[in-house]
Design brief:
2 copies of one chain form a homodimer. Chain A has 10 helices and no strands. By secondary structure, chain A is mainly alpha-helical. The structure holds a DNA duplex.
Chain lengths: 188, 188
DNA sequence: CGTTCCATATAACACTTGTTATTTTACAAG
DNA sequence: CTTGTAAAATAACAAGTGTTATATGGAACG
């Protein structure tokens, strides 16, 4: 009766997401996605109402990509918040463009999730780490999280501009020392 | 003999710089600058070879604006690096678009100065603070600067996304506590 | 006063963007 | 095989970009 579709919504989203990873979110334009997917711009607007819809889909995919990244990241840290922090910093280094999109405000109207929402995820990662700190005897774990996360976010952002280039092992030691410093200062 | 100029290079640069402050660097286009300056695009290309040249001039002006901002910022901090840090964080809050341009990588080819270069300035601000730390008995002042600056940069970047909203007074206390924690951990 | 020269304005070119109208094409049902 | 229908391609529109060619106009000198 009719022609069967050759370009699926998954192909388009996958292409746009790959382009975001490799070339940055601002390069995800209708024509460039079409070129990379080997088709015209028409299939894009068949499955997405407009580019905003595709951009939002890319953002959502990036968000869940980060969740998976953290889920699969090895847990080597010996202090609360260090595992989340190491994964975050490694993510900024390995996936610069995705990190920019998610945590540094790239798209204007795009990006509705807060940093906390992205970090906490479906598993309640932040809550889990805060409980760890509480169990370790920390009296003000939220305050400690705030301090730790300011530090961790700083390292991640500096890796974007080339001002932080420690290895994962060095980062682990740095974050563990940082936690120890903040924690002992906290109980003063 | 000839017509006298009505639109000077200073007017154009000042307009472009004001637009960067208010609307962000990416809004500095030839036509928008011309509109804001109340002229056509022609005077721009008389005094600047091309837009890249104007963009670089805006960047340079932003850099020296930051130097002045720090110079005029009140020195309330009681620990090394805190004055530089408080000014930096306030700058990120008060001049979001300039901060993005200088410290978060906005222009592609624009922005040659390193973070350290921008911070240190002509006065050697960083060196001065490191000497302060050394005088205060810190054995590894460079290491302390690194840690402090990761933290400070983190707070500044989080203020861009709305994830840091402490007052200047709160920031001062936070940074002083932070220095104390790092410094005591350092001598362990 | 007129002429000359240069600052400015206007208009255009070539390109990119999102989006849409139109045409082509492929596939399946009758 | 014809035909209908939807997918895809082509082409176009309107807006925006940097840049440049052309036209306008004002001011100072002779």
């Amino acid at each position: 009766m009719a022609r069967k579709e050759t370009i699926t919504i998954e192909m388009i989203l996958e292409t746009a997401f790959a382009m975001t990873r490799e070339e940055g979110f601002s390069n995800v334009t209708a024509r460039k996605v079409a070129a990379k997917a080997g088709c015209s711009t028409q299939p894009i607007f068949r499955v997405y109402k407009n580019m905003d819809e595709l951009w939002n889909a890319v953002y959502e995919k990036a968000a869940s990509f980060f969740q998976d990244y953290y889920s699969l990241y090895p847990r080597m840290g010996k202090a609360p918040f260090t595992n989340l922090g190491m994964a975050y910093i490694a993510f900024a280094r390995e996936e610069k463009h995705l990190f920019e999109l998610l945590f540094v405000n790239e798209g204007s109207g795009i990006g509705k999730k807060s940093m906390y929402e992205l970090l906490n995820g479906k598993e309640g990662n932040v809550v889990y780490e805060i409980n760890l700190a509480k169990a370790a005897g920390c009296e003000e774990p939220q305050d400690l999280f705030m301090k730790m996360w300011i530090f961790i976010h700083g390292a991640a952002c500096m890796s974007l501009t080339g001002d932080y280039d420690l290895t994962d092992v060095q980062t682990q030691e740095l974050l563990e020392n940082c936690y120890r410093d903040f924690a002992s200062g906290n109980n003063r």
